[in-house]
Model the fold of this input.
Amino acid sequence: MALEELEKELYRRDFDISEKRRAKRSSTSGRPAGHAGEQASKPPETWGEKSENERGVIEGAFEEAFEKTTSVGRRLFFVIIGVSVLVIAVSGFYLYQVFSARGIAVAIEAPDQTFIGSPFMLSVVTKNDSRSVLSEASITLNLPPGTVIVGEASDKTVEIKELGSIGLGGINRQDFEVIVLDGENTIKNFEVALVYKPSTLTTPFEKKIVKNVAVGKPALTLEVFAPNRVFSGENFELSLNYANNADFDFENLNLKIEYPPSFTFKSATLNPDAGNNFWNLGDLKSGSEGILVIDGNIVGPDQSFFDLRSTISVSLAGKRYDIVGRNTSLSISPSPLALSIFVNDSVDYIAKPGDFLNYMITYQNNTGTGLRDVILTLRLVGEMFDFTNVNTDGFVSSLNRVVSWNAANVPELRLLPAGARGNVNVSIKATSAYPISRLNDKDFILSASAQIESPTVPALVGAERTIGVAALETKVGGRIDINAKAFFRDAASGILNSGPWPPMVDAPTQYTVHWELKNFSTDVSSVEVRAFLLGGIRWTGKVQSNIENIPEYNERTQEIIWKIPRIQATRGIIGEPIKSIFQIEATPSVGFIGRYLPLVSETRVRGIDEFTGLEITNLDFGLSTVLTDDMTVGAGQGAVRQ
Done:
């Protein structure tokens, strides 16, 4: 029976049952009223008679139960139909995907193991054994970190190839030459995703595969030998040994060494091809090796450390790749000729504009040999050194910013005995103003670097001369200014003041107070400006600022607080200052007749100098009805009158 016919039959049965029930109820309710009395006078019926008489009632109850059961069954029927449709749809979609991918294979052909710096071929093979043509096919190769396709940039990690259509039984092969640049004794995971559309469908499908390649040692090894510790200025050898451990030849190898700034190149067993740190090593056959020895020295403070970076690169497909590199650390042993610098008896003094900087340079001969013809120099570098204010017994070259001492002005330097020590001094003034002319004129430093040397070389020290060096950097702290002003006539601010002028006893007069902040050479954070309203002064609540933060008033303490998270260096020196304006109201008492009425206490500002890490503070005088900044007020007009 069809679904529509089944529904009609069910509805017809429901209708017939309902009609029977209504007829039964009608026949019962339609009996005469006296009939009930007759029933009451009859003797009790037997069980058989009672069943016969109540058959209609039982039948009605049965029919009602059947009606409910039929209704529930109908709903259950539709639920089953819906669930069946959903199951069929999901199963169909699953089968659709399975059969759409059936017969389509993708594989990665690559060695299971490779070496760093050794190029290898990675091939992606796609085969279509399905029953439909694949259209708009493409593969995406995701490269693991530390690998690159030869000829591509080192930071390229994804390669996409459009395959177009692949016919029935068709095979597509894409080859990629890959090189591993780092990751010794690791596993590199190469992932390929094939995207395609079966010709009979419009939905694209994707199939992924991963190939794991183990990475061994570098195909080209590089070893660097150097002493762990050297004296400042002492010559030492840097030996670089390189070898080709691969089963193929390397072509067009280059070697580059990055020296620290204080390194002095003396010579090398192979002349550099560019500057003093670049060599074209040429070709290196399988199993062969080479050696390069460099001679030089480093000048630096005692116990300081320096790094040298050596890198060998290879040229492949027009691109150069670093395939092996080594870092070498050197430390400076305490010099036979020790040197130290102090400024104002400290090594971490924070200078201020206008300071006198008293430098003391101490030296000591730590060898067992007397050192002859000692020369000591001090170089002062920094925009805030004022060479017009220098006091020293050394020779001053303002052009080179160098102060020097030798036996001519310090006789003890002609021969410095073993174990002897001494010191020289320089006093120089810092400029009274910050040299700010641009936004980035900030964080000023005063640098002092000293060097002491003698042509005498102690035994067993491989140097041309005995040298000691020292350096000291002194930061110049920042400064922040607060300027507090009060006005009676201040229409330009947008706040109108009212009340009598000159001020009168027991009569309120309004004033506007301006705060202006200027920040000089350093960024300052956690800035706070504070002041108190004095007796008889009221906060009106009118306040404004040219930044997001505005002053707030604490009514209990009568304190005005302006908190600013951060102010950049040169704000107000270059560009507009930070400003705020607020209104107050003053009611003089009789005790101020003939006197100026105090309005606001002294204004203080504090903040953290981000360059030095120190707190900086400043203040401005308190305000009264003198109103020295209000050009509309004459001298003496601010005195309170009766």
About this structure: Residues 337-475 form a domain with the Immunoglobulin-like fold (CATH 2.60.40.1530). The first helix runs from residue 3 to 29. The chain has a mean pLDDT of 86.
